[in-house]
Structures are given as structure tokens and as C-alpha cells.
Amino acid sequence: MKKLFENWRKHLNETYEPDPRLTRGLEKSMAAGEADRTPEEIMREEVQDIASKFGVDASVEIADDGRAVIVVHLPDGETVTYNDSDEMYDALSKEEY
What we know:
By secondary structure, the chain is an alpha+beta fold. The chain has one domain (2-94). It has four helices and three strands, in the order H-H-H-E-E-E-H. The protein has a three-stranded antiparallel sheet, covered by helices on one side. Helix 3 packs parallel to helix 4. It is elongated.
């Protein structure tokens, strides 16, 4: 029991060092100034990247309840809203534009 407690205490006192392979992308994005941008700016850029890939017009609007909503204007004139960029990408990838 004493040995178990010592191992547990030793484990709690160790400093966590993340695997450098896992943090490589984070370091690159922080070096590129991504750490200075707000989550809204990052989301807007991501939405624009997806929109340009599928050839649609998209914008990020703030709803009455304060949440960000993605508004997409399709080439046929229809307007569709999405809650996040993953949902937008999935829906647009299933359609032909």
C-alpha cells in the first residue's frame, strides 16, 4: 500500500510534457499570428475557405441570442443557415454546385 501511495504521489508531482509531434501544428499556427485572432475571426476565415471551395457566398452573422450563425447563399438563390462550419461542409459536399 505504501508503494502504491508513493507511485501515485510521484505521478501527481511529475510535470506534463506534451508529445512534440502533437503540438507541432499549434506552434506553427501561433507563429503565424493565429493566437492574436479571435475565435470569430478564425471561424469567418474557415467559412470563407469552405465557401470558395464550393463556389457559394457565405457570411457569419450573430443571431439574436448571441450565437454565430453561418448564412450561405446558394447559386440557385436559396439561402441556408448552419450552426458550424462542419455542418456547412457536410451539407455542401453532398450537393453539386
